[in-house]
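Dear all,

This email documents one entry for the complex benchmark we are building for the journal club exercise. For each entry we list the sequence lines for every component of the assembly. Then comes the predicted three-dimensional structure of the complex as a token string, followed by one or two observations. Please use this as the template for your own entries, and keep the labels exactly as they appear.
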Amino acid sequence: MQRSPLVFALQLLVTLLAAAFLVVPAAQSILAGLTVNYFQGLRSGLTLDWVAQVWGLYAPTILRSILLALATLGVTLLIGVPAGWALARKPGRLSRLVEEVVTLPVAIPGLALALGLILAYGGIREFRASVAFILVGHVLYTLPFMLRSVMAVLAAIDVRTLEEGAASLGASPWQRFIQVVVPNARPGILAGSLMVVTLSIGEFNLTWMLHTPLTQTLPVGLADSYASMRLEIASAYTLVFFLMIVPLLIAIQIMGGEKRAKKRK
Amino acid sequence: MTDTPAPTGAAITLSGCGKTFPDGTCALEPLDLQITPGETIVLLGPSGCGKTTTLRIIAGLESPDAGGKVLFDGQDVTQLPIEKRNVGMVFQSYALFPNMSVIENVAYGLRVRGVAKKERLARAAEVLEMMRIDQLAERRIDQLSGGQRQRVALARALAVRPRVILLDEPLTALDAALRDHLRAEIDGLLRRLAITAIYVTHDQAEALALGDRIVVMRHGAIAQIGSPRDIYFRPADDFVASFVGVTNRLEGAVRGGRFETAAGSIAVAGPDRATASLAFRPETAVLCGAGDSGLRFRVEQVHFQGARQRVQLGAADGGRLVVEAAADAVLVVGDDVGLVLDPARFVLV
């Protein structure tokens, strides 16, 4: 197809403008975290002081977020993989209903979900004050992503027939689950895991309601720093956040790519 | 495995095994079936006839409705799940484990039985050798062709030396030439191992070639049980006759020891009947001159097939027959011919 240079130039321009519209704020934010004084701009010079200060102020928060994300992952794996397996084995109206109910927390605003948790369990002081309270919220919110990811891969590999094959060879239900179901569901479990970890690290709505001053997470700390610190510190905070979340996103991309490559073969 | 004694097959008895699914559909009416040790029995029928349900009840993947019993060597196994029945099973989709190599797949049954790694791999290698696929041992499942997968599935089922092997349409997913080849291979293998085999298929050619006995099924019930020859030459009813091979039918009546139809009459044994139909296979009839037999037809089409000719005949009442003729017989479309039927090889129903 013949392409007119003018049309191509226009397309390029629109694309570049759209990209710039999205990239400029990010770049500005990063720069703000690295300049000595944001209001004087780059003339004031570049520094890593703000990043160091963020680390000094919020290191426990960052650590807590990471541990929380890993704990959320652990719980969603323990619940999500067996549950996905059980639902995939017996497709029917009841399975559909369970799936819908589990997915509900994604549709309900995080604030409402948090309010519900506080009303129901806020009276139990130790629980309310601990990170476990936030963990419950994160599990409610991320579980459907793990569940769906596992169910999708189990449906694709026809897990019922595989299990019947293993059973015909004498494998008990537990052996079938560990030796046949889980290894073959691995791509789905991995994709679900990365999803859960990134969602948990970035979750704000729920966590903002559920946290206490002693149980802040990364995004809540970010809001806190925007509200109460210099803009440079808040921006440096964003930078730290970027550095943590981007490798995870790249990992998701790579794994998605691997799956496609396998299919082509 | 070649130098170890062949596993002895189990005798299987089904008594009153029916199956009604939760939604109320009756997949299988209560049926009784005796399978002798070492026998190859083929369950044959169109889709939805209950043959796969019967196989799954024997396997332990479905439980029969209350009152049904499955016995292996006289022992009631109705309540045992499949993993406790020591059966080998080959699935239509093979159900090979994609996370394991070929040899790991074949060794899996031994692995869950707690056989040490070295021994189970050695035994799996023996089975692969017996199936002549030892060169595939380290391959991944997605690197195998359909025919190779089929052999691996069979090897995996046999590696645990089961008392019974159950095959659920094992050749359906393959192309025609490969199907014939593997059918002969499976037949040889089952006879060599003297294992009890239950083979489900909708393909009558497979059933006739493999079965010691064939169970023809229809609408969840047994239509006929018999040897391949019985089923082919003495079908119990119209359904069996038309499902197993090409069948010709002449409509008419029996009067005074003769079957009378639009094309003429021939001598038959049996009492008078106002309506009767005579069924026979294409290859059992012999063409002759128009006046040389009591039956007379017109040649409508002739297909030369190399070794034989396939001839379509028309009767005066519009009925059509297909018969075979020698390759060198001279047949002209529009001519009249006679037909000689062997009384031992037709049935009057």
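Observations: Chain A touches chain B through 20 residues (CB under 8 Å). Residues 58-264 of chain A form a domain with the MetI-like fold fold (CATH 1.10.3720.10).
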